[in-house]
Amino acid sequence: MEHPREELATGPVTLRRWRADDRDPLHRAVNEAIHTLRPWLPWVANGYDLDAAEQFLAHAEAGWNSGEEFDYAVTLDGAIVGGVGLMRRIGPGGLEIGYWLHPDHTGQGIITRAVAALVDEAFALPYVDHLQIRHDRANTASSGIPRRLGFTEAEHRPKAPECPSQSGVEVVWEHRKPDALS
Q1: Superfamily of domain 7-180, CATH level 4
Q2: GO cellular component annotations, sorted alphabetically (predicted)?
Q3: Beta strand 169-176 with 94-101: parallel, antiparallel or unpaired?
Q4: What separation, in Å, do the N-terminal and C-terminal C-alpha atoms of the chain show?
Q5: Structure pTM?
Q6: Residue 125 to residues 93, 119, 148, Cα–Cα distance (Å)
Q7: Cα distance between residue 96 and residue 71, in whole Å
Q8: What residue ranges do the domains of the chain occupy?
Q9: Are 36 and 103 in contact (CB under 8 A)?
Q10: Mean pLDDT, consecutive 10-residue segments, the chain of 182 residues?
Q11: SS3 state of residue 121
Q12: Three-state secondary structure call for residue 103
């Protein structure tokens, strides 16, 4: 099965496949951002130590090799400022996009650029005809990305809260490959 490219550049932002030597900068970036991530993301609910960073990097490597997930570091001038990924967990022809960003870099279009690059890269893969972004309804910051990139708000569905700020309603955004619409 064809994989996306391991590095994508879009203006000052570069997405690159995570590497084993990213452990320390990943750990630092997540811990500096933990106060903005913890309300929404269960993987930081109990903190984020070096073991967690190492386990994520091993998971990212295995996911890439199996073709199930394609996780990228989001870098700005070589420094890790966030993460994005494509995940094969929504059924045939589809990939889900996930993202997080260090709070010092919000409002600069970094994640919008990163996700736009992922959309283009995903739709270049012959087996992808649609993408989804999912987030909790209360996470209004996350809703701006799919809205700006032309995703359609497709569904609101119940989902048991996993974090303190979650409302229990998951918003699903969809984007269809342009040539898949006809």
Answers
A1: Gcn5-related N-acetyltransferase (GNAT) (3.40.630.30)
A2: cytoplasm
A3: unpaired
A4: 25
A5: 0.94
A6: 10, 10, 22
A7: 11
A8: 7-180
A9: yes
A10: 93 96 98 94 93 98 97 97 97 96 95 97 96 95 94 95 90 89 49
A11: helix
A12: helix
